[in-house]
Amino acid sequence: MATVRDTTYDLLRDLGMTTVFGNPGSTEEPFLAAFPDDFQYVLALQEASAVGMADGYAQVTGRPAHVNLHTAPGTGNAMGNLVTAWHNRAPLIVTAGQQTREMLLIEPRLTNRRATELPQPYVKWSHEPVRAQDVPAALMRAYATAVQPPAGPVFLSLPLDDWGQPADPYRPPRTVSTRIAPDPYRLGEFAAVLAASRAPALVFGAGVDRAGAWPAAVALAERLGAPVWTAPAPERATFPEDHPHFQGVLPYAIAPLAEKLRTHDTVLVVGAPVFRYYPHVPGDHLPEGVRLLHVTDDPDEAARAPVGDSLLGDAGLTLADLLDLLPPGDRPPPPPRPAPAPPEDGTPLSPDALFAALAGHWPADGILVQESPSNLSALRRRLPITRPASYFTMASGGLGYGLPAAVGVTLAQRDTGRARPVVAVIGDGSFHYSIQALWTAAQLRLPLVVVVPVNQQYAILKAFADFKQTPGVPGLDLPGLDIAALARGYGCATATVETPDQLGEALAAGLRADRPTVLPVPIRTEIPGLL
Ligand SMILES: Cc1ncc(C[n+]2csc(CCOP(=O)(O)OP(=O)(O)O)c2C)c(N)n1
User: Fold this and answer.
1) How far, in Å, is the centroid of ligand 1 from the Cα of 292?
2) What is the pLDDT of residues 494-514, one digit of tens each?
3) What does the pLDDT read at residue 329?
């Protein structure tokens, strides 16, 4: 007689979910027992890394990823990156073990009290099945919830004695759609506004990359003769950044962002919130007379926008439909933005010099994973992203995502056979939040290269303190950390990098290696401006 465990594995297999990211405990062992040969268990040494890896993996494969956590403490450790997965729109199916049903009333050790509330509000659905026999169907519902727009994480709490129970008859997977087509009438209104616009501007967000819609985004920009910005603080790149229409990333504060749009009369935002602000710089959200049109597949994102008219729709489908509706115009292309001046020479390297060197040695088809807060502007200025699905960071602002995400992205390159090279740039502070992901990369023999700009401080927080005029904040310096020793301790290769040439050599060697390489690079310690 088939057990709940048997049918659950059959369902996972039929859903194509044969990779499990996790960290095991007693409450998970009955699920993991006799782990099938055709499944892969990716062991993380802490749950933050399990979730970050799964998020990167899900984004690259375009499919939900399974994370298996240890009851309440494991879910607690996972929470920061679960917040990120929510904002990243990463379809994660998070399962956590629960104590034996028979004992739950008296709350034995490792009971997950009010299990379904713990991950809230950063999951789309949270459930503990009422009967053991409901576990497979709950998993199917979790899957359907995770992948439908807006995609995101879901949570199931699964009592450990459920797995051996006799199962209901097997029900094969159902399918659901993952894209919303825009309302054609409202789309027609949007197209009419754009066609009549004197000076339209386009603002693209991560939704464009998730939808695989770079070609449609480029075609629309060229059709309209419009400049293109990326929406503030993007978690993915949205447009070829060497295209003459590309103007950069919009600032993440109200007044400076509005200022950038001053010469336009219509702004079309696709696949991003309006807008992802960070420091409060008050002002009007838009210059006077500017009309904003917003395309998103998330009703909540549409509802909370402070300005503009919105249309629910998948970024790719909507852009394709707009192209069908908009006739070729005769607007000249916008003037291209000026190229940055060459960076200054000398050691330690400035962030600009480091990233100019990285760009100079960048591997064809390379993927960048980024968590380097104060150096972000320099990195994005020097290393344009020119291909889709090539840039990943967190949408949330929570550190501890980039390093495990890079491991998940690299593993997905191997598992999908794409074999694209992956380079992570992780600040020397950010490096420590999920550092144990390095061990997983080493065990999996992944050729990930991690560049660590070492400024021995939380520079971005010093910039924020300057901006808010709050001097005297403690805890912003990071002396005495030996990044190379830590990396070696987890099984990674390291090399000394102080010059652009050393970076080139170490990068090439690291991408050819059969294990991860961590490259700490001392950089200058000036504090850049926040905006
Ligand atoms: C989980 C979490 N804890 C704390 C913070 C606050 N925080 C934001 S940036 C930052 C410093 C990052 O330091 P580092 O990676 O060295 O980059 P730098 O600012 O020096 O470029 C901190 C602590 C955060 N964003 N997330």
Assistant:
1) 33
2) 998 999 999 999 999 999 999
3) 84
CA distances from 265 to 199, 288, 305, 459 (A): 6, 9, 18, 37
Ligand 1 contact, 459 CB (< 6 A): yes
State residue 215's pLDDT score. Answer: 98
Q: Which of 331, 310, 148, 297 is nearest to 225 (CA)?
A: 331
> For 74, how many CA atoms within 13 A lie in the half-sphere containing its CB?
30
**CA 460 to ligand 1: nearest atom:** 19
| Secondary structure of residue 454 in the 3-state scheme | strand
Q: Is 447 in the pocket of ligand 1 (CB under 6 A)?
A: no
Average per-residue pLDDT in the chain? 98
Our mutation pick for probing the ligand 1 site, out of 461, 478, 527, 530, counting the most ligand atoms within 8 A of Cβ, is 461
455 lines ligand 1 (CB under 6 A): yes
For a mutational test of ligand 1's pocket, the pick from 458, 464, 521, 525, i.e. the residue with the most ligand atoms closer than 8 A to its C-beta, is: 458
Separation of CA 477 and ligand 1 centre (Å)? 11
Q: Ligand 1 pocket check: which of 372, 460, 462 to mutate, most ligand atoms within 8 Å of Cβ?
A: 460
Other CB atoms closer than 10 Å to residue 176's CB: what's the count? Answer: 12
Torsion on CA atoms 252, 258, 259, 260, rounded to nearest 10: 70
pLDDT at 289: 95
Which residue is closest in CA terms to ligand 1's atom 25?
398
Please, what is the end-to-end C-alpha distance for the chain in angstroms? Answer: 63
pLDDT at 336: 86
Would the CB of 52 count as within 6 Å of ligand 1?
no
Asked if residue 287 has a cis previous peptide bond (ω within 30° of 0), the answer is no
SS3 50: helix
Query: Relative to the CA of 433, which ligand 1 atom is closest?
Result: 1
375 lines ligand 1 (CB under 6 A): yes
| pLDDT tens profile 427-456 | 999 999 999 999 999 999 999 999 999 999
Tens of pLDDT, residue by residue over 285-340, are 999 999 999 999 999 999 999 999 999 999 999 999 999 999 998 899 999 899 99
> 7 in ligand 1 pocket by Cβ < 6 Å?
no
Closest CA to 107 of 156, 132, 155, 72: 72
pLDDT at 191: 98
Nearest CA-CA partner of 157 in 118, 196, 197, 127: 127
Is the C-beta atom of 25 inside 6 A of ligand 1? no
What pLDDT was estimated at residue 515? 98
Among 523, 123, 103, which Cα is nearest to 346's?
A: 523
How do residues 351-370 score in pLDDT, each as one tens digit?
A: 999 999 999 999 999 999 99
Express each pLDDT in 77-117 by its tens digit.
999 999 999 999 999 999 999 999 999 999 999 999 999 99
